[in-house]
Amino acid sequence: MYGKGIIKGLGVTFKRFWNTYWDDFVWLMRRFTGGEKRYYTPVGIAHRSSKDGRGVFTVQYPEEKLPSPEEFRYVPFLVYDESADGKKEIRCTSCGICAKVCPPQCIWIVRSNDPQTGRPVPEPTEFYIDADICMNCGFCAEYCPFDAIIMDHDYEIASYQRNVFNMEKLLKPASYYKSIRPLNYKINEDERKAKEAAKAAKAEAAS
Amino acid sequence: MATLVHTETLDLAARFPGSVTADSRPGYSGWIVNKDKLIEVATTLRDEFGFDLLSSVTGVDYFPDKMEVVYEAFKTIGGPSIRFKVQVPRVDPIEIPSVVSIWPGADFQEREIWDLYGIKFANHPDLRRILMWEGFEGHPMRKDWHEPFYEEDNKPLKSRWPDGKFVSAEDKNIYKDNLQFPQNFDPEKVKLDGEASLYDSVQKYTTIDAGIKTDHVLINMGPQHPSTHGVFRAAVVLDGETIISLKPVMGYLHRNHEKIGERNTFLQNMPYTDRLDYFNSMSNNWGYSLAVEKLMNIKVPERAEYLRVIMAELSRIQNHLILIGMLLNDLGAFFTPALYAFEERELILDIFEAASGARMMCNYHRFGGVSRDLPEGVLEKISGLVEERLPRRVDEFDRFLTENEVLLARTRGIKVINGEDAVKYSITGPVLRAAGVPYDIRRAQPYGIYDRFEFDVALRHNGDLYDNYLIRLDEIRQSLRILQQAIKQIPDGPINSQKPQYQVRVPAGEAYGRIEAPKGELGYYIVSTGKPNPWRYHVRAPSFINITALEKMCVGTKIADFVAILGVIDIVLGELDR
Fold it and tell me: Does B273 touch chain A (CB under 8 A)?
């Protein structure tokens, strides 16, 4: 029969159409038994973007946001630890690996020099990232030996100016790092502790 | 009749004494052919030894003494390539014979070499610039050509560390943009040729039909046209609605990817390959890491091999889904199939994001493995998709579209290309297989661990638009088969055989790594001199080379079918223009 294929195809669209409202209805009914809302809740979003999701698939950005997975990477930031007296201890030693590995060469570092001896001090005086050129590849964070530069999760950085981030803008506390990447943070901390323990053991053995 | 000779034992030097010598530079392989004998050698290779598919032609600038053109030819029955080269002194004018008469697929590639290297090809039918515009000064891929914001030959740039005061590149140029003018350029006196050479190259004629003189119409499809999927333009000559002649115009998105690649260190190229075919960054990464791993001669651990297969096949599925959706868009089914396809694609991109950190610009591969292991729960997600959801959804697509009368009317019987011509024009990928040539690199010359999986090379025989649509569905199903096996077999273990290094040491030599990307054969030709940066980094982009036969495919069809033909060739401008 001519037109059978079209009718069959329309059946698919109708099924999708039906699913949309049926799913809404099912979730609405569930609310009477203490279920979550289908929209504007993390559970609802997770369901819609899972393998079982049917019906409305879109996420109403910016009211709803997709959760970022831990590995998600956006323009990097610099990590500082807060010492007991509240001072910022910048982890960066200005070794320059991030500037060297950066594919679009958007990292600019001024290394500190000791004013008396003129020898380099492990600490940056200035640090710039041209976020407009940054391609979010994550190499800087991947190859940093001190976990001092980490890829961020904050992707809403549109602005009317050119986004050249200086130290002030780039520095974020280690607690923030922990909040966005708990697993990676834990791995880093464990490694660090192991290293320190090894060092202490070595020192003890030497004395 | 072609005789069966194994490529490894083929001795061209004995066959052509005096005019062919083996390439004996350390790390190199293949044959150096005297340029006067090139046509003869090429004809013999095609007719006598059966190398019917010329895959890649590229130039290399061995500054300051010589220029080289490297040819890579394959047999469609499978097996390794034969690589042969022509060397010429680096003194202008440089000229070598064109092989377009033997392998028409060399057409655009030779034009590209002329454009970027300034090597002329004698007897080329239409030797114009292809990526740069007519009137451009110089040949940008030459080692002594410098771009406007030139700082240094190689990255990392010294201005970034240890005294890296930020300077914006635009501030260095008085025009505040990326322009460079030839010396003695006077904008007042410049005369534009109105693209005369382009319009001269299309055939235009006047017919006298029943005493009425009829001129043919020349129209420009694009560069801004919804059906070209980007900034792609075709100058089309029409007789009524029938296409008589057609010339593609490209390069609107040209950024000289290969020049950037030669500036970068080996590792720095990895994220740049994402930007080629931005739908399939996972496959692009693989091709590049394959070539460099060949040079470095390193192994990839088991788990990483499986991860690579999983990611590449997922990427193929979403690419084909988008192709079907967008093809239907071009045919007039406004966005319903496209959005159905996007839904599944989003779920696949979720997996990419969880594994690599980005949805599209994945940057997932490293030399010797991959960058990150799968986080917890992702393998279950993949398995949920490939075992349950995607097979169902592919069947749904099948129900939705395959028998649709409108689709059938628009696609069935509209010839794209036949198998013989497809091979001649170096077409690879689904378009070739839809024309009845069972050539799939995963089978013809398996890379990675593809020899372990059970799958069929999807094949259709008519080579029309409808077959080109169907083969995408077939390939999705085969990819799902591979994925179902891979997630069952994937072992635990390390994901990289190398220590993380930000600067890898790559021994001197050359390598050509190729994979079956969703759009065709994606190859990378890399020359290393042992320094941190590649000397030559060439991308054999399937979109670019499949478009060579566009005129052949379109002549004689209706202008409305041009849109659909362009749709099934599956071009991506990031890769086409590079």
Answer: no
Domain that holds residue A160: 74-206
Burial of A100 (0-12, 13-18, 19+ CB in 10 A): buried
pLDDT, mean over chain B = 87
Residue B490 is given by DSSP the state: P
Q: How many whole angstroms separate alpha carbon B215 and alpha carbon B205?
A: 7
- Domain's final residue, options B100, B122, B144: B122
Using the 3D structure, point to which of B122, B154, B177 is the last residue of a domain.
B122
- Alpha carbon distance A134, A141 (integer Å): 13
B80 domain residue, yes or no: yes
Amino acid in position B578: R
CA-to-CA distance for B493 and B304, rounded, in angstroms?
Answer: 9
Residue A83: Cβ within 10 Å count: 9
Domain assignment present for B192: no
Instruction: Report DSSP letters for A15-55, one per residue.
Output: HHHHHHHHHHHHHHHHHHTTPPPSSSSHHHHHHHTSTT--S
CATH number, domain of B362, equals: 1.10.645.10
How much is the pLDDT for B147?
79
Q: Which of A9, A70, A110 is nearest residue B375 as measured by Cβ atoms?
A: A70
Dist CA B392 CA B468 (whole Å): 21
CB proximity B360 to A under 8 Å:
no
Rounded to a whole number, what is the distance in Å from the CA of B306 to chain A's nearest CA? 20
Band (B1; pLDDT cuts 50, 70, 90): very low
Tens of pLDDT, residues B194-250: 677 788 777 777 677 777 777 788 888 878 888 878 888 888 988 888 888 888 988
ipTM of the modeled complex? 0.90
> How many helices (DSSP H) and strands (DSSP E) are in chain B?
20, 19
Q: How far apart are CA A43 and CA B220, in angstroms?
A: 50
Distances, alpha carbon B246 to alpha carbons A168, B200, B228, in Å: 56, 12, 14
Query: What is the count of structural domains for chain A?
Result: 2
Residue numbers of B between 83 and 102 with CB closer than 8 Å to A: none
Same domain, A106 and A185: yes
Q: Look at chain B and report how many structural domains it folds into.
A: 2
Interface of B with A in 165-224 (CB under 8 A): 165-166, 168
Instruction: State the DSSP string of B139-195.
Output: -TTSTT---TT---SSSSPGGGSSB-----GGGGSTTSSS----TT--TTT----TT
pLDDT band at B5 (very low <50, low <70, confident <90, very high): low
Q: List the B217-221 sheet strands across, edge first.
A: B217-221, B233-239, B242-249
Q: For residue B26, what is the domain's CATH number? A: 3.30.460.80
Residue B516 has pLDDT above 80, yes or no: yes
Q: B271, A162: Cβ pair inside 8 Å?
A: no
The shortest CB-CB distance from A12 to any of B164, B399, B503 is to B399
- Print the domain residue range for B43: 7-122
Per the domain annotation, does B1 fall within a domain? Answer: no
Whether A105 sits inside 8 A of B160 (CB atoms) is yes
B161, B264, B403 member nearest A99 (Cβ)? B161
Rounded mean pLDDT, B285-308: 91
Pairing of strands B242-249, B233-239: antiparallel
pLDDT over 50 at B385, yes or no: yes
Band of pLDDT at residue B523, cut at 50, 70 and 90: very high
Closest chain A C-alpha to B282 CA, distance in angstroms: 14
Which residue has tokens 């990255």?
Answer: B155
Query: Residues 30..59 of B with a Cβ closer than 8 Å to A: which?
Result: none
Is residue B178 domain-resident?
Answer: no
Distance in angstroms (rounded) separating the CA atoms of residues A50 and B347:
7
| Chain B residues touching A186 at Cβ < 8 A | none
Give the position of tokens 């506390």: A173
Residue B162 preceded by cis peptide, ω within 30: yes
